[in-house]
Write a structure and sequence with these properties.
The chain contains 17 helices and 13 strands. By secondary structure, it is an alpha/beta fold. It has one domain: Alpha-Beta Barrel (TIM Barrel). Strand 11 (360-365), helix 14 and strand 12 (383-386) form a beta-alpha-beta unit. Helix 11 packs parallel to helix 12.
Length: 452
């Protein structure tokens, strides 16, 4: 199972719904790790048979030679030798309208989450014309708990489904900052082994069962500070209390690095150099990882890293460098290759990112980024990870002709770049799932046209 399939599984089963990872939870299908706190009942035979039948369909899809062709396209793309622009589509919040809970047949909560994951892979293969690779693996994540920073914001939520929320940050003063503690991970190896054994029982002979967990999404840090201190307040602090911001960011960077090193020492990290979601979109296929001295135990330098700074939108490049990037680099320098950016417009930061982020390979060009500036700065030295505006699918109207013009225009702007087209942040399709089918068909047609 690819990481994209893994990452929605927990989301759909209701697990991992903390407020630390709204963005990361939107990434592929589920989290590959499972926090402690939920007991899993004995899975009945009928549930197991449903899962086996679905796994057989996934295995059949995975055996198609087209999957290997896609793999090779990704290897070339990530080595900056593209054959054509790559195309991906992540429905994210709109999955509720494509594959609602009502279609699930299993009864056990864990079985239902696994079922959803398998059905999502089948749905993608049957509906989307994209470069997502459907492989013959099924991932089971470590069961774990995370102590956090010792203080956490409280949330006030809207009654509206998928509505907004605001939070009350706990850090009100410099003294409060001293109450934070470094986070730690605690692995429940016994429960992890139980679930892994269950997966082997169900899928052996059909899919290859793997133990792998994506413990994090971004090493951005600035979002963690915004949750602890308040977004408005950190903007004020950068002007009125800069040393406070430096102290806080230094603590967060040190704590997060210690956390990563703990995972490394525990031996629970997994390579992400294959069919694994990396950054804010794209897949990790590369022969440049792991590092040449890899001995079987995964280290940070064997992996793709990622950071973004969406909460820093609006500050100057100088302030971004001083208060954000300088601390992110302390972490990113430990990874073998790096991705940067998500929804924030990075065009004014590109000179800094190119100069300071070690191993930079993939850069997000969001709907709010100047596409021309990004094309000029990135050229053929980095992956131009273009995220079309989600209104293409999520708007009240759907206009295929406009979509085609929009994609064609961007490809012309990015001529000479290593382009990938990734539709995401689509939190509704107005209950018209076919919109995604049409978008992917148009995007692939334009990608192939551009290549020819």
């Amino acid at each position: 199972m690819s990481d994209f399939a893994d990452k929605i599984l927990r989301l759909k089963s209701g697990e991992g719904n903390d407020d630390k990872g709204d963005k990361r939870r939107a990434n592929r299908y589920t989290w590959t790790g499972t926090p402690q706190g939920k007991e899993v009942a004995e899975m009945h035979g009928r549930d197991k048979q449903i899962l086996r039948d679905l796994a057989k369909k996934v295995a059949e899809i995975a055996s198609d030679e087209k999957q290997e062709e896609k793999r090779q396209l990704w290897y070339a793309h990530n080595s900056l030798k593209p054959v054509r622009p790559m195309v991906l589509c992540f429905p994210e919040g709109a999955w509720d309208e494509l594959l609602p809970q009502s279609v699930l047949e299993c009864q056990d909560p864990l079985a239902r989450s696994w079922e959803w994951s398998l059905r999502a892979k089948i749905y993608i293969a049957e509906h989307f014309c994209t470069d997502e690779v459907i492989d013959n693996t099924f991932s089971v994540g470590y069961v774990y708990s995370d102590t956090g920073w010792g203080r956490a914001p409280s949330y006030i939520r809207s009654d509206t489904h998928k509505g907004a929320y605001k939070w009350e940050p706990p850090i009100k003063s410099y003294e409060d900052l001293q109450t934070l503690r470094y986070p730690e991970v605690h692995i429940d190896f016994q429960e992890t082994e139980r679930r892994l054994s269950l997966a082997h029982e169900i899928f052996d002979g059909i899919l290859e069962v793997q133990l792998r967990t994506s413990f994090w999404w971004s090493m951005g840090l600035i979002r963690e500070l915004a949750l602890l201190r308040g977004l408005d307040q950190i903007m004020i602090d950068m002007c009125e209390a800069p040393e406070f911001v430096h102290s806080a960011m230094n603590f967060l960077a040190e704590g997060r690095l210690r956390w990563l090193k703990q995972l490394e020492e525990l031996g629970v990290l997994s390579l992400n150099n294959g069919n694994h979601y990396v950054g804010s979109g794209g897949f990790g296929f590369t022969n440049e990882l792991p590092a040449p001295d890899f001995n079987g135990k995964v280290r940070l330098k064997d992996m793709w890293g990622f950071a973004e700074a969406q909460e820093a939108v609006g500050i100057s490049p100088m302030m971004f460098d001083e208060f954000v990037l300088s601390y992110q680099v302390k972490i990113l320098e430990h990874f073998g290759l790096n991705c940067y950016g998500c929804c924030e417009p990075v065009h004014n930061w590109l000179d800094l990112l190119i100069a300071k982020v070690p191993g930079l390979r993939r850069v997000s060009v969001s709907p709010w980024c100047d596409r021309k500036v990004a094309a000029e700065k990135l050229g053929d030295k980095f992956i131009y990870s273009w995220k079309p505006h989600p209104i293409c699918v999520s708007g009240t109207t759907f206009d295929p002709d406009w979509i085609r013009r929009y994609i064609r225009e961007t490809l012309e702007i990015a001529k000479g770049c290593v382009v990938e087209i990734i539709l995401k942040d689509t939190h509704t399709c107005h209950n018209q799932p076919w919109r995604f089918d049409v978008w992917t068909k148009i995007a692939m047609e334009e990608a192939e046209r551009f290549a020819n």
